[in-house]
Amino acid sequence: MRCLPFPSIYPERVGMASFSPLPRAGTTPNWFASVMGTGIVANAVPVLPLHLPGLRGAATVVWAIAAVWLVVLCAVMAGEWRRNASGQLAQLRDPVLAHFWGAPPMALLTVGAGTLALGRDWIGLPAALGVAWVLWVAGTALGLVTAVGLPYRMITGRVVDGEAFGGWLMPVVPPMVSAATGAALVPHLPAGQARLTMVLGCYALFGVSLFATLALLPLIWHRLVRGGPGLAPGGSGLARGGPGLAPGGRGLAPGGSGLAPDGPDLARGGPGVAPGGPGLASDGPGLVRGGPGLAPTVWIVLGPLGQSITAANLLGGVAPFGAAGRWLGVLYGVPTWGFAMLWLVLAIAVVVRAGAPFSLTWWSFTFPLGTCVTGTCALAEVTGAELFTVAGVALYVLLVGLWAAVTARTVVAVGRVELRRFAGTPEVQVLGRR
């Protein structure tokens, strides 16, 4: 049985309900990932070590498409909030969609960066700089809200419990994108305290995202090695300990009765609490499990890795610290790049094995990989190493191929959904059908 990952709203579980195969554009936050993925295809061109005739012009067209699409999605989302505010607020309790509220701020930041890097060719530097600042401030402010607000909602139980997956990183990555894109704004500030404040602020944003990522990444790794990106081995939605059983016994804490010292259902192995305990399967009322459709979100891990390499090296180039800033970018960037390449290979293998059906999670193939392109190219510029030059170009070719494929599938899927709406066909799809 295959599960598509984005019903309009999860009730208390995943795995048994029918839902729309593709939400209407702009009605859910994960749609903004399409702006991110399109924008990064354009934004990577100015930093590529390879400059082909017409490539910058083509990239500017792609940036314009991303900018227009961003305006459309924002307009639809604003209308949706006015029409159905309760439904939008309910998404903040959704175990999957809640995390994708990190996408809108990153979409703003991506388009803003492209406006300064590419849009200036069409609208001039003063206008491009003004738009870039507005989008950077808005994206940074909204990104800090998601970086603090979503973890807080999870800690306080205001998001339905779900197992760790790559999407958990979405709310905490925006500050890293702010750090990377903010570096391009530094030279346009007056020399002195203004530039120093901006640089230090960007380094602080770098730290916000970096340490949040370091806290979440082990949880995602543990989830992958214990049960894969979707269902546990066998596809039953049960933990490895047996049919609904924790490793220590019948869904009970090792050696215990499943009861905490002060009451029922509080022990780590108690019913409805421990992984594998009763009520935790995909058809139980406890933790929410994703299906194979969530496998592409493994690629999201590449986002903070590649973006941090980009930010470290771009900030090192504009920081008033001389060679120390550039060396810091290299010393951080090269080991992180190595791990990113390891994760890229694992992510490809996981997705191929999962055979995930098309959904909006496929946009996870684009922006995270794009940050690896910009990070690799930044290392190529700083070190002069041909290794990074070749790798940067190869990764960009892969990015363009994936972006073209995902864009085509999205257009076809949207067309089919709109055709069903026009024909009055019910917009539901039973799990298990592709």
UniProtKB/TrEMBL annotation:
<comment type="similarity">
    <text>Belongs to the tellurite-resistance/dicarboxylate transporter (TDT) family.</text>
</comment>
<keyword id="KW-0472">Membrane</keyword>
<feature type="transmembrane region" description="Helical">
    <location>
        <begin position="57"/>
        <end position="78"/>
    </location>
</feature>
<dbReference type="InterPro" id="IPR004695">
    <property type="entry name" value="SLAC1/Mae1/Ssu1/TehA"/>
</dbReference>
<keyword id="KW-0812">Transmembrane</keyword>
<protein>
    <submittedName>
        <fullName>Voltage-dependent anion channel</fullName>
    </submittedName>
</protein>
<keyword id="KW-1133">Transmembrane helix</keyword>
<feature type="transmembrane region" description="Helical">
    <location>
        <begin position="164"/>
        <end position="186"/>
    </location>
</feature>
<feature type="transmembrane region" description="Helical">
    <location>
        <begin position="98"/>
        <end position="119"/>
    </location>
</feature>
<feature type="region of interest" description="Disordered">
    <location>
        <begin position="250"/>
        <end position="275"/>
    </location>
</feature>
<dbReference type="InterPro" id="IPR038665">
    <property type="entry name" value="Voltage-dep_anion_channel_sf"/>
</dbReference>
<feature type="transmembrane region" description="Helical">
    <location>
        <begin position="131"/>
        <end position="152"/>
    </location>
</feature>
<keyword id="KW-0813">Transport</keyword>
<dbReference type="GO" id="GO:0055085">
    <property type="term" value="P:transmembrane transport"/>
</dbReference>
<dbReference type="GO" id="GO:0005886">
    <property type="term" value="C:plasma membrane"/>
</dbReference>
<feature type="transmembrane region" description="Helical">
    <location>
        <begin position="31"/>
        <end position="50"/>
    </location>
</feature>
<feature type="transmembrane region" description="Helical">
    <location>
        <begin position="198"/>
        <end position="221"/>
    </location>
</feature>
<keyword id="KW-1003">Cell membrane</keyword>
<feature type="transmembrane region" description="Helical">
    <location>
        <begin position="330"/>
        <end position="354"/>
    </location>
</feature>
<feature type="transmembrane region" description="Helical">
    <location>
        <begin position="360"/>
        <end position="380"/>
    </location>
</feature>
<feature type="transmembrane region" description="Helical">
    <location>
        <begin position="387"/>
        <end position="406"/>
    </location>
</feature>
<dbReference type="Pfam" id="PF03595">
    <property type="entry name" value="SLAC1"/>
</dbReference>
<dbReference type="InterPro" id="IPR051629">
    <property type="entry name" value="Sulfite_efflux_TDT"/>
</dbReference>
